[in-house]
Structures are given as C-alpha cells and as structure tokens.
Amino acid sequence: MLLSPVPMHIPDGFLSVLVSVVFWALSVVGVGYALKRVNEDLGERQVPIMGVLAAAIFAGQMLNFSVTGGTSGHLLGAALATIVLGPWAAVLVMTSVVGIQAVVFQDGGLLALGANIFNMSIVGVAVSYFTYKSMQRLLQQLVKDQPWSIPVSGFVAGWVSIFIAALACALQLALSGSSPANVAIPAMSGIHALIGIGEGLITAGALAFILAAQRDLLQPAAAPVGSHRAVWVGGLVIAVLLAILSPLASAHPDGLEWVAEQRGFLDLAQEPLYEIIPDYVLPGIGNEALATILAGVIGVGLVLAATLAVAYVRRRVQSVEV
Amino acid sequence: MHHNTIDVEHVSYAYPDGQMALRDVSLHVSSGERVALIGPNGAGKSTLLLHLNGLLKPQAGRVRVCGLDVGDGNLGPVRAAVGLVFQDPNDQLFCPTVFEDVAFGPLYQGLPEADIRTRVAAALEAVGMADFAARASYRLSLGEKKRIALATVLSLRPHILALDEPSAGLDPRARRGLIQLLTTVHPTLLIATHDLELVLDVCDRVVLLDEGRVIVEGCPGDVMCDVALMEVHGLERPHSLTPHAELHHLRCDALAKCVAPGNITNE
Amino acid sequence: MLHQLDARVKVNLTLSFILATTLTPPGAWPVLTLLAALALAVVILAELRARFVLVRTALALPFALAALPLLFTVAGTPLFELPWGWTASWEGLLRVANIVVKTWLSVLMAFTLTATTPFTAILVALRGWRLPRLLVTIVALTWRYLFVLVEEAQRLMRARAARSGQIVEGRGKSLAWRARVTGGMAGNLLLRGADRAERIYSAMSARGYDGEPRVVAQPPLTAGHRALLALGYLFLALLALTGILFWG
C-alpha cells in the first residue's frame, strides 16, 4: 500500500556498478550542498517542517484519482515540495522520501539509491524550480497578478519534472546496458508524459487549496530567483541536456551500447588480474559445468547448515521454556 | 526545593492575527500546590501554559517560575525547571523511539551519557512503562503515549509540571491510571483541563479562565458547585458534586429508559 | 535468529551482498548460485514465512519489464521469432535472466533486512556511518510522522469515498473535478503537516532544543560482531572476485 505508484524507482541489478557509483557521487555532492545551504539559510524551525512535510508528501503519494479505465493519477511530489519549501529544503525532503522508500519498502534499490535520489530529488527539484519560476515570470508579463498563475505554473512544473526525471532514468538504464536506448527512452518518456499529467493536476490542485487556505505557506517559492540562481540555471541545463541527449541516444542506440560495453574502469582493472592468476592455476574451476555443480553442492551445504542452526536454536529455546 | 513557584503578573497576550488570548492575567502558584485551569475552549488556558517556559513572550506583564524571570537570558534553566506536556502526544513524542524521546530533554541539558540513561530509566519507571524504552512511538496506544509524554518531561527532573488536557481521549481505565500517577508525582502542578472529575481527584485549587481573563479562583468544591457561574462560562457542575436528591432523580430517569432494569444481555 | 543481530552488522552485510551481486558479471552462474544459496540460508535463519517473502519480493519485479527488450536487441544465436522481424536470441535471454535474478536476489536481501530489523535500529546504523545529522534527523522525523499522516490521508480518502459513492467511473464529475479534489487532499495533508510541524517545534523547544541535532552515543560493536562483519566481507569479496576473474 505504501509502494510509490510512479514507476521511476530503479531496483538493484539494473545499473552497472560504474553508473551506480557515478550517480551516488553526484547525489552526495548535490545533497551535501543542499544540506549546507539549508544550514546557512534556514532557521532551526525548518527542521521539523522538512521532516513532517516529507511525511506528508510520502502520504500524499497514496492519494489517487481515477483517470479512465484502470489507470489513475498519482503524485511524486518533487514539484509540490519545491514550490512549498524552496529548492534546497525540497532536495532534502525528497531525499528522505526516496531513501525511506528504498530502505523500508524495497521501492528502488540500495545500490541504485544514488541514481534514484539523483533523478527524483536533484533533477526533479531543479527542473521543477526552473520551470515554476520561468512560468511565473512569463505569466506575470502576460496577465499580471492572476490568482490562477500559481496553480498553472505548478501544473507545468509537475509535468516537466516527471518527464525529465524519467528521461534521466531511461538514460541510466541504457548506459548500464540493461535496457536498449531505442526502447527505454521512448517507452519511459511516453508513459511519464501521461503520468506527468496526473502529477501536474494534483500539484495544481494542492497549490490551489493551499492558496485558498493559507497563502503564507507559499512564501519560500515566492522569493525572487536571485538567491537560488544556481538552481534555476541547473534546472535549465539539466532539462535542455536531457531533452537533447535522449532523442539522440534513442536514434543511435549503438552509441550508448558501446559506452555500456566499455564498462569503464572495471575492464581496465581486470586485465592485470588475469595475468596474475592464469586459468591453469585453478584447474577444474575453469570447467563451467563442474564449477556450477560445485557451487550447487556448496550452496546446498549452506542452506542445510542454516536449517540445522534454526532447528537447534528452536529446540534449545523450547527446552529452556519447559 | 522551597520555591517551586509560578508567578504570573498582569500578563496580556494577543496572537499575530490580533485576537486577544490573555488579558491582564495574574496568578500565583505556591510550591507543591496542584492547581487546575478550567474554562471553555479558547479561554486562554493553553496560551497561558505556553508562557510558562517562554514559548510565548508576554506583550505586557511578566512571568516568573522558581524565582527566575522567563525571558531570553534564562530560557535554558527555565525550560529545565518547567516540564510542559502538550495535549496531542503525537506532538510531544517526535522521536522514532521511546528512549530517544525521553532522553531528548536531558540530552539538550548537556548531561553526560550515563546520567541520561539513568534519568530515562527512572522517568519510565515513574510512569510504569519501564519495558518500553526500545519501542517505536507510533505503535503505542493513546494511553501509553500519554504516559510516555509525561515521562519525556519527568526525565528533566522539573520543579513544575504544566499539563495540557492530560486525560483527553483516554478510555476510563487509562484515565484512572493517569489520575493515580498524577497524585504521586512531586512537582508543583498546573493542569489545563475540561475533565472536572480529574480536578476534584487531583487538585487543591482551581482557576476559572474565560476570554483571557481570570474569572474566579478557589477551592475546587466551592467553584465548581456554583451551577450558575459554571454555566455562564460554558462549563457544568460535575456529577460528583450534584446534591444527593438530584442525583437520585437522574438515576431514576436513566433506569426508566431500560425495558427491564437489571437485565443485561451479553452478546 | 537474525532479529537480535546488531543492525549495523546487518545493514553493512546487506549492502555488501548487493554490491557483490551487482559486480558479478553476466554468465557467472556458479557465483550467482552461491549468492542465491547464501540468500536462502539468510532467509531461513531469519525464520520468515515463505509466502510473505515471495509476495513482498515479487512486488519489485514488474520493473524487470524494462529489461525485456534486450531479449530481441542483443544479437546472437536465434531462439524464436515474433512477427515484424523480432528475433529473440539466446544471449539476449541470458542477459534478461541475469538482470532479473540479480534484482530478485538484491530485493530478497533488502527485504530480509527490513523484516528482521526495526527502522529505528537502521537509523542508528546510518548515524554510525557519519551521515550528516541534519539529514538523519529529517529522515527520523519523516519516519515518525509517516504513519500519523498516512492515517490522515486514509481518513481523507474515506471521507471522499463516503461522499462520492454514486459517481460511476467515467460519468458524473469531470476529470478536472476529480483531480482538483485529490489535489485538495494533498494540499490539505501539507497544511496539516505544517501545522503539526509548528506544534512539534514548540514541543522540541520546550525541552531545550537549540537547532543542533544531538543523539545519545551508541556502544561500539562487540568483537564477535566485528568478526562476523569481517568474515562476511571476505566471503562476499571472494565471490565477487571469482566472478570477475573467471567470467568477466
């Protein structure tokens, strides 16, 4: 019931070690910088707000509305968190949500968590912020201070954030060689172009509600871009880069395949090891069938040992109770 | 301690939206006294409690606890002296486990780790929840949460306990247990509550607040027997203070509603 | 048996297991067999009900659809053919099977970790890694209030269902209306959350909170636990190394 219904949480086993490590590094840098900025800019009062609103976003992901047939609209919440809390706090909120989903509900892998945090917290928040602020400015020019400009900007930010985050996810899969680029990118972007509508609608509805009930909660996002120019530019760069890169990769899947096949430093690191331990040092294990049988035998032994251990402990406990 | 006292002198407070919550409130509570704050919703009871440890600052007048001025320079000692328990235990218990919640106050007092552990154990023992240290707060029943909430301030070894609606939402058994607990704790007590029977069981004195003003204060029996006064301020006389003859009528009425009195069917 | 084991040991070994599984190259079936036997042994030691384990771990598998196209795009020995020139290859099948098996093994171990360890203990383990305290505090608060807010979300959904019983799918109110009501509920949750955060801040301040996240220190790991950790690391490292050396 708590599983997030937005299919963007990559499980373990799909990303190559290189891709996992690179995106962990990017996420650590991004989240670390967000922590620094939150520590500097926001007061201690913000700590419970970030924690509880992360819980609210998490709970909000359970809400749904039927669209048509069996499909339904859902919320991921990156755009909503960004608009309500400002970009830095939103990165921490989404990181907390995505992290708990991975650790507690196995929604997204642990080694893949770096990539998932990158997609949903960093890309999601930066792109939301860029889109929301740009839309706000555009609408300001066009229609001045209309009350509906906030929900409308929220809708667009919600849609764009989901769409771009899905592209990032598809690229990571293609880079790892677990899904061909010419299938993964059109499929992920197609599905999420639809899911993004649900995201956008719920985001807009939530903003309209907050606007009517308690306008001052939207203060952080109302601040001028000045203080967060880096996020705005970051969102712009990520969105443009992914929007250009994806169709390219999709049209030339061989290019990505080639990158995936290289598997970077791991292959490089392997070469000398081969020289140190040549095949004939361990005769027999070189034989595939024999190795498999051996592994099977050791495996059965392991399982038997575990079963016996449990039975032994149970008997001990029972005899103590008697 | 000989001066676990509360002195509220001519305090007024208005919320940012302009609504007056307290108007020229004065109140003295002596060391070891158990005082109840009663009054309708919105009378200012909770607002007054928030003033006791500086969460709200009076716009006029002053507040002193244990002889200390409640103000910016004194917040540390004041907050260690006054244990404030909020109405909703979900607000009071904000840590993942019971242990962390009860340890939170001592931790921020800067106590060494061994002392913190002793205090947590003692506080949980005092509320009869010694086995609950490792439990997750969200899995507790409301009655358990209310007891742990009390433990979270008992671990501060406060001189004054300020409780907001300690019995709200409890079933009769949990409420009875709480009342017993409250009669055994030592500090000066100030309880804001609608539970007038609890006031009769626990408190020595009652202060009636309405619209931010102290209307009357006195012995619980005297104040709460005044039917006219109680009703004017949105309260009612508790049944245990109802005169015997009147109580007899109530009982007869209740029994008359039964088809066959004394015949209870168990399904 | 696993329930009493120190959470720090369990978290570190689970992560090492997943790392070793991910490092295992495609086609290293003997290594995957050993990893699977290890996982099975751990599940047995955890004494979890098989049905429960299977249902929960199967939930993570739909994502495997993303790997399915590899069946057709990887070139190699033809296996079978679909219309429109889609040819499945033996090599493609191995690649897909490799991903699915690795994913399932990883989910299995991650699930066994959470099924045998309260999240509060996992939080302690995370602190042991010197994660920034601010982040851990936010995660702890998220966890603490998740259930409070999920209950509120369920109350909101029940209230919506009680008032819209007559609306049949696709008829009655418009899509925009349904979206707005749901969005309103999400906004409502955020506002309730913000109000609660204010009260929590008061409760924290009342007990001396000054903005600096603090925790009571944990006792160090026992020698036995450290030995178990070292043994686990060694075994998993050997497995991964074997895989990389002979099948990489």
How does this model look, in words?
The complex is a heterotrimer of chains A (322), B (267) and C (248). Chain A folds into two domains: 17-266, Arp2/3 complex 21 kDa subunit ARPC3 (Orthogonal Bundle), CATH 1.10.1760.20; 279-321. Chain A contains twelve helices and two strands, in the order ααββαααααααααα. Chain A has helices at 17-41, 46-60, 78-85, 87-105, 113-143, 149-175, 181-213, 219-222, 229-251, 253-262, 264-276, 288-321; strands at residues 65-68, 71-73. Chain A has a two-stranded antiparallel sheet. In chain A, helix 1 (17-41) crosses helix 4 and helix 9 packs across helix 10 (253-262). Chain B has a domain at 6-89 and 158-256: P-loop containing nucleotide triphosphate hydrolases (Rossmann fold), CATH 3.40.50. In chain B, strand 1 and strand 2 (20-29) form a beta hairpin. In chain B, helix 4 packs across helix 5. The relative contact order of chain B is 0.16. In chain C, strands 1-2 form a two-stranded antiparallel sheet. In chain C, 48% of the residues are buried. Chains in contact: A-C, B-C. At the A-C interface, helix 1, helix 2, strand 1, helix 4 and helix 7 of A face helix 1, helix 2, helix 5, helix 7 and helix 8 of C.
